[in-house]
Amino acid sequence: MTGETNRFVVEVRRTPQKHDAKTRINNFSEIYADFKPAQATTQSSRCAQCGVPFCQSGCPLQNNIPDWLRMTAEGRYEEAYLLSSATSTLPEICGRICPQDRLCEGSCVLEQSGWENVTIGSVERFLGDMAFENGWIEPIVPVQERGQSVGIIGAGPAGIAAADRLRTLGYKVTIYDRYDRAGGLLTYGIPSFKLEKEVVLRRTDRLAQSGVEYVMNCDIGNDVSFEELREKHDAILIATGVYKTRRLSVPGCGSQGVVIALDYLTASNRVGFGDNVPDYVSGRLNAEGKNVIVIGGGDTAMDCVRTATRQGAKSVTCVYRRDRANMPGSDREVYNAEEEGVKFEWLSAPMAVLGDAETVTGLKVQRMRLTTPDAQGRQGIEDIAGAENDLPADLIIEALGFEPENIPVMFNEPGLEVSKWGTIKTLAGEFQTLVPGVFAAGDIVRGASLVVWAVREGQDAAADIHHYLQTQLALSLSEAAE
C-alpha cells in the first residue's frame, strides 16, 4: 500500500485485465476482471487530489470521487465504499456501465493535462464488489418506521434507487413492474458481457430483504388501475423508463427480417436466464450464421453488434449516418466492438431494405458527408450525389433510440400532462407531476438517457416524496389538533 496520492508521475495508468477478443466472443461473461486490492490501491494513488475536482462535477451523481480514491489509496476500503454509496445507490453497477470516458474520467484533470485519467469506474466497481463479498452491505433497517407507503411503477434503475432511499427513510415501498424480473433495462436491455445479471439480482434481492415488496408481471392500466394505486398508497412514483422504439421509414422496413433492438436484446438476455424464447429458437431474434446489420450509433447499437458476434453471426456491420467523432455512444464500446470483429460503415444512411416481406437480403445505403459546423459547432450531414451501395444482410436490427409511451392514456390519468416530446411534465425544479401526490423520475421525464441519470433522479425524487409526505402528515396532525 502506498498510502499516498499524486503518484501519477510514477505510476502508469492501468485498467483491469480484459479478456482477449477471440476468447470473450465465445461467452457472455463480463470482459473486464475486477481489480485486485493492490491494483486498486496503486491506481487510486494516481489521483492528483485537485482543489477543483472536475471528475466530481462531471459525474451526474456528484460522487465524492477524490475522497474515496484517497481512502482506497490508503487501504481504507470499507470507508471508501461507504463514501461512494453515500451519493449512489448502485455504485458497482455505474462503475460497470457508465460511459466514464464522457463523464468523470473524461473530465479528470490528468486527462486534460496529458497524464491519462485515473481509472475511476474500475475503482468504483472494485469497492462495490468488495463490499458485497465482505458483508458490508446488509438489508436496510430504518431508524424509524413510518406509517405511510409509496408505490413505485417501474423496477428499473430510477425505481430501484428511489426504493432504496425511501425504505431507508422508513416508508413502506411497493414496486410494480410489467416484467417478470426486476431491474428494467439493467436486466433485459444490457447484455451480460457488460453487466452480469447476478450483479443486478443482489441489489434487487437486498431491497426485498429490506421489506420492499415487488409486484411483477403487473401492467398498470390493465392488471390494476392507476386510480387503485393512488388509493392504496400515500404517494406514487412513475419510473417506467421509455420503451417505445423509433422505427425505420424506408421501403422494405416492414420485412420480418427487420427487428427492434430491445426485442433482440431481451431475447438474448432471456436465453441467458434459461428461458424458452420461441423467436430465438426459430432464428428470428438469433444472429447465428447470419450477416447482421445494426442501424444506429448509440450504446444500444453497440450492445446489439457485440451480442451478434457472441451468437455466432457470419458478419456484423454497424451503419451510422455520421462519423466516429460524432457518434453518441461510448468510444470505449466502439473500440471493444472493433476488437471483436465488428465492421463500421460510417457516414451511411439507410435508403431501403432489400428482400421481401419474409426475409431480407441486404440494405441499400446512401453515403453522406459532414457539412460546415453551425454556430454551436454542430455539423450537419448531406447526401453525396450518386454514392449509393448495397450491403448484404440476413438480419437487420434497428437501434434508433427510444421514445416515451403514452402514459396518460395507458394509465387513464388525463391529469398527467406531457411535453411535446411525450415525457411527463413535473413542477419546475421538482419531481412532482401536476397530479397531487404523483411524482415522476428518470427517462420518462428526462427522455432516453444514461443509467446514472436515472439513479440520480430516482434518489432526488425520493427526497421530494419524503418532503411531500412529511408536509402532508404535519397538515393532518395540525387539522386534527384544531
Explained architecture:
Helix content is 37%, strand content 16%. By secondary structure, the chain is α/β, with parallel strands linked by helices. The chain folds into three domains: 127 residues, Orthogonal Bundle (Fumarate Reductase Iron-sulfur Protein, Chain B, domain 2), CATH 1.10.1060.10; 175 residues, FAD/NAD(P)-binding domain (3-Layer(bba) Sandwich), CATH 3.50.50; 152 residues, 3-Layer(bba) Sandwich (FAD/NAD(P)-binding domain), CATH 3.50.50. Helix 17 links the parallel strand 8 and strand 9. It starts with 20 loop residues before the first helix and ends with a helix. The model has no long low-confidence stretch (mean pLDDT 96).
Any key phrases for this structure?
five-stranded parallel β-sheet; 482 residues; 15 strands; Oxidoreductase; alpha/beta; 16% strand; FAD/NAD(P)-binding domain; globular; 3 domains; Fumarate Reductase Iron-sulfur Protein, Chain B, domain 2; 37% helix; 20 helices
Radius of gyration (CA) equals 24 Å
Q: Please, how many helices?
A: 20
Helix content: 25-40%
- List how many beta strands DSSP finds: 15
Instruction: Report the biggest beta sheet as strand number plus sense, adding barrel if it closes.
Output: 5 strands, parallel
What is the CATH architecture descriptor of the largest domain?
3-Layer(bba) Sandwich
Give the CATH H-level superfamily of the largest domain. FAD/NAD(P)-binding domain
Which descriptor suits the 3D outline?
Answer: globular
Are there runs of 5+ residues with pLDDT below 50, and where? none
Structural class: alpha/beta
CATH class of the largest domain: Alpha Beta
Strand content: 15-25%
- Overall tally of structural domains: 3
Mean pLDDT: 96
User: Any idea of the CATH topology of the largest domain?
Assistant: FAD/NAD(P)-binding domain
* End-to-end C-alpha gap: 64 Å
| Order of strands, widest sheet | 3-2-1-4-15
